[in-house]
Amino acid sequence: xxxxxxxxxxxxxxxxxxxxxxxxxxxxxxxxxxxxxxxxxxxxxxxxxxxxxxxxxxxxxxxxxxxxxxxxxxxxxxxxxxxxxxxxxxxxxxxxxxxxxxxxxxxxxxxxxxxxxxxxxxxxxxxxxxxxxxxxxxxxxxxxxxxxxxxxxxxxxxxxxxxxxxxxxxxxxxxxxxxxxxxxxxxxxxxxxxxxxxxxxxxxxxxxxxxxxxx
Length: 215
Fold this sequence. Notes:
It contains four helices and seven strands, in the order H-H-E-E-H-E-E-H-E-E-E. By secondary structure, the chain is an alpha/beta fold.
């Protein structure tokens, strides 16, 4: 049966053609997963959150990419379940990264049932997806007590959630970005806290990380 969205093919092409750049590794998830000015403060705020629990939480990383970021968070969790849509990427990560509390799964998070966990992490994932896919994912995020969402947004007022076709591009080119709480998604949460905001420049926007307490 044909998948309703072209996301898997688009993401496979991103890695095969190194559309997000490259380094020595076979797989590279872009500067957003490697540039210290973006990665280091993110690791800091996520570590603070994960270590605030009496018992380490179970985390599901939805769209784990090349795992350059996730690998630094695994030790702070009871179990870390890392998910991505590209089979070869998941095979690569499984061979490269080993820990007793670490699992990798190949899934289309808009189509498949998601692993259970206390907290879901989506780091610059939804920005690449169509509104229909985002809505499908949002319908499943209600099962996680905490959702930590990172999105690339314009650094000025914008109309959120303009639709795009899934691929390597994001809504920034339409002077838009993802806001799960706004229409058409209207994601219902108990509490919202901005954990981090990193300004790139006037034209390149900001990277915002938000913690949602869902229930």
